[in-house]
Amino acid sequence: MTDGGEGRRVLLTNVGELVTNDPGADRDGGPLGIVRDAAVAIEDGRVAWVGPAPDAPVDDDVEVVDLGGRAVIPGFVDSHTHLVFGGDRAEEFSARMSGRAYEAGGIRSTVGATRAATDDELRARLAAFVAELHRQGTTTFEVKTGYGLSVHDEARLARLAAEVTDEVTFLGAHVVPFEYREPDGPGADAYVDLVVGEMLEACAPHSRWVDAFCERGAFTEAQSRRVLEAGRAAGLGVRVHGNQLGEGPGVRLAVELGAASVDHCTYLSDEDVAALAGSETVATLLPGVEFSTRQPYPDTRRLIDAGVTVALASDCNPGSSFTSSMPFCIAVAVRDMGMTPAEAVWASTAGGALALRRSDVGALRPGMRADLAVLDAPSSIHLAYRPGVPIVAQTWKDGRRVA
Ligand code: NIG
Ligand code: FE
After folding, report:
1. CA 218 to ligand 1 center in whole angstroms
2. CATH number for the domain including 227?
3. Using CA positions, which residue lies closest to atom 12 of ligand 1?
4. Whose CA is nearest to atom 5 of ligand 1?
5. What's the 85 CA to ligand 2 centre distance in angstroms?
6. Is 289 in the pocket of ligand 1 (CB under 6 A)?
7. Are 18 and 98 within one domain?
8. Cβ burial 180-206 (10 Å sphere, 16+ → b, else e)
9. Do residues 206 and 323 share a domain?
10. Which coenzymes or cofactors are required (predicted)?
11. Residue 64 included in any domain
């Protein structure tokens, strides 16, 4: 493995196609900023230079890595995952494939398994997911809480997630847990009191974001607003799960609160599309969800053609989308959601970075983190063209090879 740490200089050369996501780098001016027969110079874990290979700065101190004409893209930015959980729901998936509908209530069975898991069990599972992400070219990923739903367990999940990423999202408002829903339980509003009080206080120190599942069967607009406003007042950025199972207030609420992203966006009214188009809020689409719930895919063309910024993410979770593969999401988005290969590659790299309001990842230009994926293919089109093939040959994070 190559160490790209302090003072280390590496030159990746013989790159057949380099996706920079820097439109200025592309003579044709495309959004992917493609440079052919390219090289990338890395110094101290950052991109120092990109351009045509013959112009690359070379000297005796540089370690040269010949990539044999392979394509290089920015590492995937997976802006939506739920990777801290216990158990799985394979039986629920199987029942769904036999015709049963997806319901938000399945979340509660994962809450039971997660509460029963020890810290070390959850930590080992997370470590395995991180390795899985790296193998598939993902270098930045967000992780949500939301399977603890008690002060103790939500804080535990936030703390464990923070061990593997800076992008932790507090999702205490995922669903109302059993103990609050029982006929003689305190009810949803009392649970929201807990979320905006003691639970937020315990989770905020480990989190960058607050999220709420604003959907029938989860939280109402008023309840979601309380949670998101409280999170914002505690210094967290806002993101929203909305419009997954039907039209509803999620998208409008996200735009009104200046959310970085509203995720799912499967069922949108014309007003929702117009609100997104006039905002800084990214619409994050999650192809794995529609794939594994057999719901209709979101209408991506309607969003992109209206000028909405679209990101793609895995939503990796044991219920609605148990894939961590961004290449898979790209393939589905291209095949079934009307995206071009270039749009899908951009949405899963630069789009994800915008959804996390990150300016140091999602593109390969001088100053950015040297986070990238080397494809066993001559162009990024192959991500959609060769579905199901292990196409990521190498993954580099902060100038160091991690897979
Ligand atoms: O993003 N929509 C809410 N939460 C997850 C599903 C979680 C689950 O089913 O366990 C999602 O799809
Ligand atoms: Fe989700």
Report:
1. 10
2. 3.20.20.140
3. 320
4. 320
5. 13
6. yes
7. no
8. beeeeeeebeebbebbbeebbebbbeb
9. yes
10. Zn(2+); Fe(3+)
11. yes
The number of domains in the chain is 2
Examine residue 292 and state whether it is found in any structural domain, yes or no: yes
Could you tell me the residue range of the domain that residue 386 belongs to? Answer: 9-75+363-401
Name the residue among 271, 261, 270, 288 with its Cα closest to residue 358: 261
The pair of three-digit structure tokens given for residue 156, joined into one six-digit string? 């535990």
- Evaluate: CB of 379 within 6 angstroms of ligand 1: no
Same domain as 239, residue 152:
yes
Atom 1 in ligand 1: residue holding the nearest Cα: 315
**Residue bearing the CA closest to ligand 1, atom 11:** 320
pLDDT digits (tens, 9 = 90+) for 183-215: 899 999 999 999 999 999 999 999 999 999 999
Is ligand 1 within 6 A of the CB of residue 287? no
Report whether 244 belongs to an annotated binding site. yes
Ligand 1 centroid, distance to 213 Cα (angstroms): 8
How confident is the model over 74-105, as pLDDT tens digits?
Answer: 999 999 999 999 999 999 999 999 999 988 77
Answer yes or no: is 326 within a domain: yes
Task: Dig out the tokens for 295 from the structure.
Answer: 């719901």
* Same-domain check for residues 333 and 376: no
- Distances 326 to 54, 70, 135, 139 between C-alpha atoms, Å: 32, 19, 11, 11
pTM attached to this predicted model: 0.97
Q: What is the ipTM of this complex?
A: 0.97
End-to-end Cα separation, the chain, in angstroms = 9
Is 66 inside any structural domain? yes
Any ligand 1 atom below 6 A from CB of 107: yes
Q: For the purposes of burial, counting CB atoms within 10 Å of the CB of 388, is it exposed (0-12), middle (13-18) or buried (19 or more)?
A: exposed
State if residue 114 touches ligand 1 by the CB under 6 angstroms criterion: no
